[in-house]
Amino acid sequence: MSAMRIAALGGGHGLYATLTAMRYLSPHVTAIVTVADDGGSSGRLRSELGVIPPGDLRMAMAALMCAPAALDGLAGRRDPAADRRHHELWAETLQHRFGGYGALAGHPVGNLLLAGLTEVLGDPVAALDEMMRVFDVDGRVLPMSSVPLEIEADVSGLESDPRISRVIRGQVAVATTPGKVRRVRLLPAEPPVCEPVITAVDEADLVVLGPGSWFSSVIPHVLVPDLLKALQRSTSRKVLIVNLAPEPGETPGFSVERHLHVLHAHADTLTIDHVVVDESSVPAGREREHLERAAGMFGASLEVGDLAVPGRHVHDPAKVAGLIKQLCSRETTR
Description:
334 residues, alpha/beta, Rossmann fold, three-stranded antiparallel sheet, 10 strands, Putative gluconeogenesis factor
């Protein structure tokens, strides 16, 4: 299991949780991160410097820095506990936001460091690789696309006539719209993939998509044509982790089944081996039977388990890792 190569696709807090879980399984984890954020510090740096928004990339790096004790010694480190404390300090520092009321207020340290290194090296991938090397972190962080992207959505419920949709542009606007998101697109259309992403997917033993903001962190990965082609031809085990609960703004009122139908509407040629859901989000009975049929649209089996932190709509990384480890021990049926 320690030699397994994992590619994890997503963005934001959802990808952070997935990466934390995958680090229980292997040190060889590549994070493939959405690059459409236009809010907060990322939005400011993107607008002022023209860089790929660094926020989700920074969060992915911080997640990979905090390897669980279960991985101690797997990478051949002489003092794993000391390395873990070192990585945790720097992960906290990269995530730290400046206070005050000046120009730096609200900027995380890691965003500024990544933006600055990108300007020096002239390449965001080189900057990410260099930061991972400097901090001596196993794994890799890659942007999904080689250019900053915008999300555009068709949203209903904003006009007096519910049949009329309005076009909403921008990740923050889409995530906070009071209407119902029907479909999303990326701008530019058919954006270029970051080439090392294709290699990571091609070489992976396990590919994990989700959880996360469904329209702005999960679905965008299947809207990059070359990335979708890589996912389609991949012979790795592919796992989709569905959100524990609907997300205000993006997916209010969505059932777990609805999440699958929306993803399939955006990528009806995508095949997946396993759809993973938390048992409390889909009671046994007719609703779960419907969900099994929805998973079948992707050629996937439905996998149900206790995956949440008790009392919270947050995935427990150790529980997620345990279930996926079980899945990886099975014979591939396809």
